[in-house]
Specification:
This protein is mostly helical. It folds into 2 domains: 43 residues, Arc Repressor Mutant, subunit A, CATH 1.10.10; 147 residues, Orthogonal Bundle (Tetracycline Repressor, domain 2). Helix content is 74%, strand content 0%. It starts with a helix and ends with a helix.
């Protein structure tokens, strides 16, 4: 493993331990047994390191989502639900990294970060477009449905992190919620006019 990769893993560990706001470059360097200056050799500053870690996080989210979608077969609605569920599972399993990926601690104009976010967007638009071709939400532009789906997934992540869903709606099966949501919403979206 290269020093750059070790620094990324150390940053992820430090972020998981202290949270994105309180994770310091010095502590990350200590985890790797290197000087603070060694970190600066690979990453100009904390924002640079955190941005690289967020790009890595988006790549991992993408792999996780593709695996989940591939595992459900050709049904477009199930693929859409699997993508949403994969997002929630990733956020639960990597909550500190997930928080960092959507924080203001990054260089939002970094080309790698912009490209990673664009790949996530493009994947969701393609997934929604496939579901539309199968009759789901045909009267609503794919980009709008993708944005609403993302907002729903992200909101569910944040609400469940605070245990609000399970305490307010204990009867909701979070493992099945997206598939049920897609099925329930399909007629309403198709009838919009």
């Amino acid at each position: 493993m290269t020093l750059r990769e070790r620094l990324l893993r150390a940053a992820e560990e430090e972020v998981a331990l202290r949270g994105p706001v309180d994770a310091s470059l010095r502590a990350i360097a200590r985890r790797c047994g290197v000087s603070h200056q060694a970190v600066a050799h690979h990453f100009t500053d904390r924002a640079g390191l955190f941005t690289a870690l967020a790009v890595d996080g988006f790549a991992r989210l993408e792999r996780h989502t593709l695996e989940a979608v591939a595992g459900v077969g050709p049904d477009a609605g199930q693929q859409l639900a699997a993508a949403g569920t994969a997002y929630v599972v990733f956020a639960e399993e990597h909550h500190s990294l997930f928080d960092l990926m959507f924080s203001g601690l990054l260089r939002s104009d970094d080309p790698d970060l912009v490209a990673a976010r664009q790949r996530q967007r493009d994947f969701m638009v393609r997934t929604v477009t496939a579901a539309r071709a199968a009759g789901w939400g045909m009267d609503v532009p794919a980009e709008e449905l993708a944005a609403l789906g993302w907002a729903a997934m992200h909101g569910l992540v944040l609400l469940e992190r605070d245990r609000m869903i399970s305490s307010v709606y204990p009867e909701v099966d979070l493992d099945e919620v997206f598939l049920r949501f897609v099925r329930a919403l399909a007629p309403a979206i198709s009838e919009k006019g």
